[in-house]
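Input chain follows. Return structure tokens only.
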Amino acid sequence: MAYSKDLRRLVLDFVAKGGGKAEAARRFGVTRSRVHVWLKQPPDYKPGKPGPKQSRKYDQEALRAEVEANPNALLRELAVSRGVSINSISCALKRMGIVRKKRHRRKSTQT
């Protein structure tokens, strides 16, 4: 849950005027650790956007091309070639709509 800028300002002003950190936490209904975090941040701090902070380690189009070129490749092999975890390759393939269907083909029994 995000706290409002006004609440943050009230807590920081209270502590700056000599109030205790624990007392500020009790009085304003935030945790003590949140008060400590706010005190460490610069006064003009603006929270960033949620979500991944780094770009992906692999190119999705290159992954798609490799899977089309070698459809029998194991997830483990794809992960090792890109230096990522098996789970990340699995999730990427699901996002791209590439799923592996296991179908057993029956041999015809015509004689």
